[in-house]
Amino acid sequence: MAEKGCLFIVSGFAGAGKGTVTKQLVKEDPDIRLSISATTRDMRKGEAEGVDYFYISKESFEQKIKEGELLEYAKYGENYYGTPRSYVEQVLGEGKDVLLEIEVQGASKVKAAFPETIRIFVTPPSAKELKRRLVGRGRDSAEDIARRLSRAAEEAGEMGEYDYLLINDTIDQCVKDLHAIVAAERMKAKKQEDFISMIKEQLEETSKGE
Ligand code: 5GP
Question: I need a surface site. Which of 55, 93, 124, 146 has the fewest CB within 10 A?
């Protein structure tokens, strides 16, 4: 009975498993939609246009910035990443929830503009485990891994600002914990104003009849 949808942000270190966890959540919960970002980076093997990202040129990205089409954007490495504004507004307006999987700078911009945003940070249980996962996916060079680890050290400075910290030990447990956060946020009294008005009216009627 949400009055209007909740806006969730999931951030986390590269290799923390946030993509897997968020995709699983939206598969299991029809009332939450994953926003697809625009990016100037190249498509990776196994990715698809409009599924993982909208892959656009730097010029088109800059045009979108100029025209105010992005809710937020950030530069990560050499590339731009940004959240299309219209999709997020449309879904929230329909009373459904939206989940953004974005990095920490973008997340803090969204939080400043919409203070009710719920931010969740996903982390592996230890730095050693993070390195093991980055090496294990076999996607990045040794240099890339070193760069991602040093970025993780910077991002760790922001973790304490988040509303929730999810320690991703196993994917199944992490997805369960994410469902629990979403459920708890939906139960907040201020998200259930329709219900409150309804029961108030009923109680007035009922008390008059007695
Ligand atoms: P990747 O290139 O590995 O897919 O993503 C790199 C980083 O960009 C990740 O931390 C991811 O969460 C973040 N990211 C993806 N989309 C967006 C977006 O729309 N805005 C911002 N600020 N970050 C994003």
Answer: 93
